């Protein structure tokens, strides 16, 4: 089995073009980009949206450039120091982060988000029903036209 694994990169792999970080952030909206000081350098859209929802009184621009440990705690792997060297040593391991919630503002924001989601679902049902009625009416009109011919 060991002989089947490529130990060295193929020459075509060494000539791969560089990739813009924004492409990865757009593809993976829950991405966090850190520097060696554990400072948030960039983040995906959904990470930023979630942080804004749970921190309504804070300036959204303060998120980028802050320490990750101010906003997130490491849930998995358990009992692991959340430091740069540990992350690098364990880069093949999935890290699960949890947003640190801020209290009352967080609860009201969650209730607002839940209410908005419920409203969206209700609107979706109304839109779906109106589309079905249109299709039904169009079908009845087509049947009536066929009967009149």
From TrEMBL:
It is an enzyme of class 4 (lyase). Keywords: cGMP biosynthesis, Nucleotide-binding. This is guanylate cyclase. GO terms for cellular component: guanylate cyclase complex, soluble. Residues 18-120 form the Haem NO binding associated domain. Its EC number is 4.6.1.2. The keyword Iron-sulfur does not apply. It comes from Megaselia scalaris (Humpbacked fly). One of its GO terms (biological process) is cGMP-mediated signaling. InterPro entries: HNOB_dom_associated, HNOB_dom_associated_sf. One of its GO terms (molecular function) is nucleotide binding.
């Amino acid at each position: 089995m060991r002989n089947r694994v490529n130990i060295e990169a193929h020459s075509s792999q060494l000539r791969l073009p560089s990739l813009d970080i924004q492409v990865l952030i757009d593809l993976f909206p829950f991405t966090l980009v850190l520097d060696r000081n554990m400072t948030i350098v960039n983040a995906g859209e959904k990470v930023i949206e979630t942080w804004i929802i749970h921190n309504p009184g804070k300036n959204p621009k303060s998120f980028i450039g802050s320490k990750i440990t101010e906003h997130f705690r490491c849930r998995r792997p358990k009992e692991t120091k959340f430091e740069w060297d540990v992350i690098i040593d364990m880069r093949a391991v999935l890290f699960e982060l949890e947003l640190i919630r801020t209290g009352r503002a967080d609860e009201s924001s969650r209730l607002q988000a839940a209410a908005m989601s419920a409203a969206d679902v209700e609107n979706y049902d109304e839109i779906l029903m109106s589309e079905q009625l249109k299709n039904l009416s169009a079908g009845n009109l087509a049947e009536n036209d066929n009967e009149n011919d």
